[in-house]
Amino acid sequence: MSTAREYGDGIDAELALKYAVQRVRGERAEVLEGVIDYVPPGWDHEHARSVLRQQLAEAVGRLRCIAGSGDLDLPGSLNWYVPDLAVVPEHLTRGAGALVPGQTLLIAEVTSESSVQTDRVVKRKRYAEYGAPLYLLVDRAEQTVTLFAEPGRLGYTKVDGPHPYGTPVRLPEPFGIELDTSGL
């Protein structure tokens, strides 16, 4: 993790960017490697998120979690993410601002034309670096689903996929379910 950068007048760039992105009104915005990026999902993108959310619903309830797209901070870096879907223990969400990826049980990103490379490379690396136990990549460009597990500082050490849409993808414990990817 990089350390915060200060400029000549003593302004902490990490703090300033994260403060700014939290105050963008009426837009989903995140900071990607120091650049504020707006996240305007289309209906096809929303469809994929909805399919995932529906299939995860039983496990999310059983695990006493919340599935949503709240803010994720990556302290010590110029990154502030808004994942397409994250599963987070319910007790961590009460009164919480941003969480860190290591507090999630699963993070899912659904690619769009503007986010393909970011989701495939940058976010996969950062989510592993910050301890997200599972990263599910729904790659709409390739029509594949890949599950990354066992995070470390150099990335995920276990990769299941890419699987073409229609191939069941098993989510390990604590989920213990198989995702039907045919509806994505």
Please tell me about this protein's structure:
The structure is a single chain. Helix content is 26%, strand content 32%. With 184 residues, the protein is α+β, with helices and mostly antiparallel strands. It has one domain: tt1808, chain A. A six-stranded mixed beta sheet has the order 3-6-7-8-9-10. Strand 4 and strand 5 form a beta hairpin.
Name a few traits of the molecule.
alpha+beta, 184 residues, 4 helices, tt1808, chain A, globular
The backbone outline, from C-alpha atoms, is: globular
Radius of gyration: 16 Å
CATH fold name, please? tt1808, chain A
Biggest pleated-sheet summary:
6 strands, mixed
Strand content: 25-35%
User: How many domains would you count in the coordinates?
Assistant: 1
SSE order in H/E notation? HEEHEEEEHEHEEEEE
**Biggest β-sheet: strands ordered side by side in the sheet:** 3-6-7-8-9-10
The CATH superfamily bears the name: tt1808, chain A
Name the structural class: alpha+beta
Share in helix: 25-40%
Q: What would CATH call the class?
A: Alpha Beta
What is the CATH architecture annotation? Answer: Alpha-Beta Complex
Q: Which blocks of ≥5 consecutive residues have pLDDT under 50?
A: 1-6
Report the span from N to C terminus. Answer: 34 Å
Mean pLDDT, to the nearest integer, reads: 88
Number of strands: 12
Count of individual helical segments: 4
